[in-house]
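Amino acid chain:
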Amino acid sequence: MKNVRNLFAGITLVATCIMFSSSVSAQSKPKGKPWPAPADAIAKKNPVKVEAGSTGEGKELYNQHCKSCHGAKGKGDGTKAEKLDISCGDFTTPEMAKVTDGEWFWKITDGRKPMPSYKEKLSDSERWKVINYMRSLK
């Protein structure tokens, strides 16, 4: 009976360590180099209205193109995030809420390593819709 209790305690300890390490890994990576957008990009306004249709389409596009790195809830904990050297960022933080739609658009359009450019993968309208969805992740 004592061996069974020790075995159970060991399994519990290992499972706890695995859960803790996987939840910490996304947030414990360095942020990477600063990525400032130009002033004209920061000032750019989103021409796509925030409404159910645009946010819904944005969610579908996000799930297809962004979720694998940025995670289902935008916390930077997607399945590919652990393979990256830097954090994918957490879209739900107050810091990220301060990023303008124009700045997000510029970053999604141009990309930088390890994030690819989506200029050729998504239309302007689709990129704006992704941003509308990202705003709902707060």
